[in-house]
Design goal:
Elements (H helix, E strand, L loop, with lengths): L5 H4 L2 E5 L2 E4 L10 E2 L3 E4 L8 H5 L6 E4 L8 E4 L11 H5 L5 E3 L3
Antiparallel strand pairs: 1-2, 2-3, 3-4, 4-7, 5-6
The chain binds iron/sulfur cluster and FE3-S4 cluster (F3S).
FE3-S4 cluster binds next to helix 2.
Length: 103
Amino acid sequence: GIDPNFERNSERTGEEHGVDVWGPVEPPETLGIRGTHVAVDFDICLADGACLEDCPVDVFDWVDTPGHPESDRKANPTDEDQCIDCMLCVDVCPVDAIDVDPG
Ligand code: SF4
Ligand code: F3S
């Protein structure tokens, strides 16, 4: 699953689709972690979609990631500022790709 200490263990390399990008990033195979309060490890996400369906405040959007070995689209936490820390997405993701830090 996603490293819950990614903010300490990786570097912020920039921003894409409105959220922080945490490296290493080497597209299309390696995409890193996206978002900070709501963080999705794009290299683990396999486009299950449960997070998009279940988030009560629609934090996530699909973004296309052609050429990534796990899936050709990912759940981007575009509206992470709207998150109400319900933790549903963390619970439903089958591969533990999401970390929400209510701190
Ligand atoms: Fe949405 Fe709840 Fe996940 Fe926040 S913790 S992104 S509100 S499902
Ligand atoms: Fe991806 Fe998990 Fe959502 S696999 S689409 S982050 S439920």
